[in-house]
Amino acid sequence: MITSPPRSSTPPSGTSPGASRRAESTPYVDLTRAEWSALRDKTPLPLTADEVERLRGLGDVIDLDEVRDIYLPLSRLLNLYVGASANLRGALNTFLGEKGAQRGTPFVIGVAGSVAVGKSTVARLLQALLARWPEHPRVELVTTDGFLLPMKELKARGLMSRKGFPESYDRRALTRFVADIKAGKDEVTAPVYSHLIYDIVPGQRLTVRRPDILIVEGLNVLQPALPGKDGRTRVGLADYFDFSVYVDARPEDIERWYLSRFRKLRETAFQDPSSYFRKYTQVSEEEALDYARTMWRTINKVNLLENVAPTRGRANLVVRKSADHKVQRLSLRKL
Ligand SMILES: Nc1ncnc2c1ncn2[C@@H]1O[C@H](COP(=O)(O)OP(=O)(O)O)[C@@H](O)[C@H]1O
Ligand SMILES: CC(C)(COP(=O)(O)O)[C@@H](O)C(=O)NCCC(=O)O
């Protein structure tokens, strides 16, 4: 019998929302901004314009309309998921009896996407919105950059131009870190990365103490685990996620955002005498932007196309930004 090949599990780009036959046969529900926004129900807007301004990353465009239309429905959906996952854990504990007497474990959310797509703003907004629900006030956010190898190690391994690629991280330590939090350990610590010195900060640690929700944000959070030396599949970071969001946009738009952020950073953070990028304040803007363009084309874009974008199909929710940073379409995994 001749069978047709399985459909890709990646959410289709450019499909018309609600498109009948296709929508039925994919694991996603495709929604327009208006359709998604209507799902917010009665969730109140708990942030002021000032608070949103403080959470916004450099170059990101986000206002109260965007919070109300996009992030409040998401906060409502996640609140429902957290409740459902507690019920599931209860069912498992009932089944396991004495063996199942687990401590409460946090609900873990992964936020993935390219460099400069605005994942950190999404993650910070989610943290602020989710913490307003009385059922889960303790929401911690960690970024995976703390698990980048220190610059000395990247240099020794010839990985300075692969920063952000999966091999530039201590993936085992990152997975262990999330596994320990998920297991309900009282106190778990992580190294801290600084964009200013472009390196891990010696002696500094971030401490996470039994949150209700943990958000893990980073380029590669949806990457599957590498097989072990014995060829056996390992448990990877994404296996600990209860929900994941992929922030998507056209590579050409992200490049523009990356370059415009570089221009702004050159006028601000790079001026700091301890900034690794200070040298780009000493040359013309054109020269500095040529360098940024090379960084984008040879490192970040390659990483996006080879490693990051291929993980999009693993996310529970794909939010697609248009050229003005506003989310225009969403694909929510239903199966
Ligand atoms: N060279 C830099 N100096 C200072 N801050 C930076 C630098 N590069 C990125 N950032 C900041 O770090 C954060 C994370 O950036 P990035 O990893 O590109 O993810 P995203 O833009 O998706 O949030 C952003 O808030 C960004 O403004
Ligand atoms: C620190 C990053 C690797 C991203 O970190 P992460 O997503 O793991 O938190 C990235 O933001 C970065 O700085 N890349 C290096 C190339 C560049 O500066 O453009």
UniProtKB/TrEMBL annotation:
Ranges annotated as biased composition (Low complexity): 1-20
Family annotation (InterPro entries): P-loop_NTPase, PanK, PRK/URK
GO CC annotation: cytoplasm
Metabolic or biological pathway, per its Swiss-Prot or TrEMBL entry: Cofactor biosynthesis; coenzyme A biosynthesis; CoA from (R)-pantothenate: step 1/5
Sorted UniProt keywords: ATP-binding, Coenzyme A biosynthesis, Cytoplasm, Kinase, Nucleotide-binding, Transferase
GO biological-process terms attached to the record: coenzyme A biosynthetic process
Binding-site list for ATP: 113-120
Domain of life of the source: Bacteria
Enzyme Commission number(s): 2.7.1.33
Domain Phosphoribulokinase/uridine kinase, first and last residues per copy: 108-251
CDD domains reported in the protein's UniProt record: PanK (cd02025)
Keyword Cytoplasm appears in the UniProt entry: yes
GO molecular function: ATP binding; pantothenate kinase activity
Enzyme class of the recorded protein, top EC level: transferase
Region Disordered, annotated ranges: 1-27
Reactions this protein catalyses: (R)-pantothenate + ATP = (R)-4'-phosphopantothenate + ADP + H(+)
Record's subcellular location: Cytoplasm
Similarity annotation: Belongs to the prokaryotic pantothenate kinase family.
Protein name: Pantothenate kinase
